[in-house]
Structures are given as structure tokens and as C-alpha cells.
Amino acid sequence: MDKHTWLEVSFLLPGEQAEAVAEILNRYAHQGVVIERDLQSDNPNQMKVYAYLLEDDSLEQCKQEIEKAIFYLNKILPVPAPTYRQIRDQDWMAAWRQFYKPVKIGKRLIVIPAWFDVTKADKGRLPIRINPGMAFGTGTHPTTQLSLSLMEKYVRTGDTIIDVGCGSGVLSIAGILLGAVHSIAVDVSGAAILSSQENAALNEVENEIEIDKASVPEILAGKFSYKKAPLVVANILLKVLEELFDQGMGKLVEDKGYLLISGILVDQMQTIEEKAQTNGFTRVDSVVQDDWVAIAFVKQS
Asked: Which annotated residues bind S-adenosyl-L-methionine (predicted)?
């Protein structure tokens, strides 16, 4: 990413309100929206929802549109006013170093920051090194943790993977460390692609992960090494998941293969399950943390 100045738009609020605010921010923040647990709060349900607006000629218009949408949302769901903070690209890592700590996930994984001494990590776990940046998937948010927990169960030695909306690349990296031989990792955010490439190199799996700015249609069109895989993962907001199903995400999964979905709230589970069923999938597993859920579906042959 070029060196720019960004305006951070952030909200601190309970998990059940996070999805609605994230959908508003997603309309205007083209680098993506992040929902993470508030690392400075003792309340595990306290979330920070944030996004970044490039400081250019459209900034003021974007701010006004966001504030107007929040005003109307507040009439039906109380939400706080946004907080704004100017950030330069070079300040990004300094802010993360202050708060980001290793995160143990499931039985076998631990997500550690790039600057952390890997020799001090839990010896019984596979370390995933992540350089936090303007991309979703640092390991602190429940949806990332839930996705990784399911991957521990469903990645089989020799698998290939397709990672839709790869963010930081953490799911693809975990897949390779757990025994998969290759992953296609795509995202529509340029920031996510750069982050995934950097993190893949940090974990020395860059040769096993095919990373590019794309989505479901490009994979189906044959622009990558394969069009189907026995395991497909997607950790994205509900609205985007529904759109991806409409674009043919189900076709990426081999018969009797697995689709792991996260990024959704517990009360949205029925909606996405019905969408999956209409595309030939059956739910076989789910895990819950706070208000969030991750679901494993199997594709019927």
C-alpha cells in the first residue's frame, strides 16, 4: 500500500450491535471493515468496529453519509457516535505493538505478532505469525478464532483450500500448517492482498498460497490453479456471504467437501443455513463464542 494518511472511524459497542454498524461502514470504507474484541476492555462482549477512509477530496462527503446512516440506525438500535483519529501508514505497527498479544486458539494453534519471539510461544502449538495491518484477521476477534477452531477439525493432510475474503491470510496460513498442500487466497481489498502476502512470507508458506485480488467469479473462470477444493473457508459479514452464494461460492466446493463459514451472529444462523441448503449443503457442525458462530457445511454429492 502506498504511504497515505487515513482517517480511522471507530465505534466501541456490544457485539450484537457490531454487525449493523459494520454494514454501514462497509458502504464507504473500500479497504474493508474490522470487528475485533476491544483489547482494552475487560468485557469479552465489548467490540471495536472500525474502518479507514483515505483523506482525499471525498472524505467529508463520506463522513457525512456515515453520520447520517448512524443517526437513522440510532432510532431503532442505540449506538454511540463515531470516534475519528488520523493515522499515517507508518504509525500503524506502533499502535498494534502496544496491545497485541499471542492468542491461543483451539487445541493446536497460537497466533503470535510478528515481533514476538517465537521461541517463547507455547511449544505444544503451531505458531501463526501475523503482522497486523489494515486487514481483517489478527486472531483477536471471535470469528477468526471460531474459523481456526473448525479448521483444526476439518483440514486433512494433502487437502487444497480456497479462502474467500482472506483478509490477513491467517486462515490459509493455518491450513498449510495443519497439513494442506496449497491454498488459493482471494480478497477484493488491495490492503488485504498485501497483508496476506507479507504474512505468508513471515510463516514461510508463500510458495503454498496463491494470493491475488479477486473473488468467486474469477476462481470459477479458471484464473487460478483450480476451480474446486475439498475445503472452502469464508469469514465475512452475512450480507457478503449471501452475495458470494449468489455468485456461485457453493460451486467452489467439491462433492462431499466442506464449507466453513464464519463472520455471522448467532441470531443470523438460520438465515445463512437456509441459504446454504438451497445451494446443496447440509450443516454438520457449529461452534459459538460470545454472540458469534462458525458453521461447517458438507456438500451433498
From this structure: 144, 165, 187, 235
